[in-house]
Amino acid sequence: MMIPEWLDHPYWHLEQVVYWNRPPGRQLPIDQLLGGLQEGRIGATGRQVIYEDSRPPKLGQRVHIPALAWVDLKIGPCDFGYGDEYLEVFETDGDNWRPAWQDVRIKRDDAFALWGSPDGSSTKQPAVRSGLPGKPTSKHLYLQKLEARIETGEVAGSLEQEATFLKDYLESTYPVAPASGLSAIKNNIRELYKSRRQA
Q1: pLDDT in tens, 167-183
Q2: pTM higher than 0.90 for the full model?
């Protein structure tokens, strides 16, 4: 399984953030990202596109983009031939939209905090959640799958078999999520598995 190198970087580009949190088979969660930026829950830096009369636009120095600024901005695919996965920040220009910020970067830990609150209060379904500070985890993914299997009567006959199934499920369905060892999965599902099997 190939893990993208950028997952270890402390700062991610916009498209990396939404790719990381993209539910399988669904659209990129751009609206969720924009909401987090507008609420100040995610901090971002970028280089502002400066327009001066009829001269070609130039880029400013990298600076922090205030949360209030995001109210009048939108995030969308770049229209310069880089493909739909490359995102850019736009501002209104009359009836049109024009590039406003480029090379926008977001702190990885902010993305973990927004989409993966440790207390489970988030209503969104991230690909990864933060367990301990700086320690992303996939635990919620296989626990959700276990609950679904218990409800449908598909749960395996032994803890070992169920943990093996969940490990394979995690690796095939969420290839960029942090890996979990078989022993860790067994320990984390033991109580739920036994209580639901007995019920």
Answers
A1: 888 777 766 667 788 88
A2: no
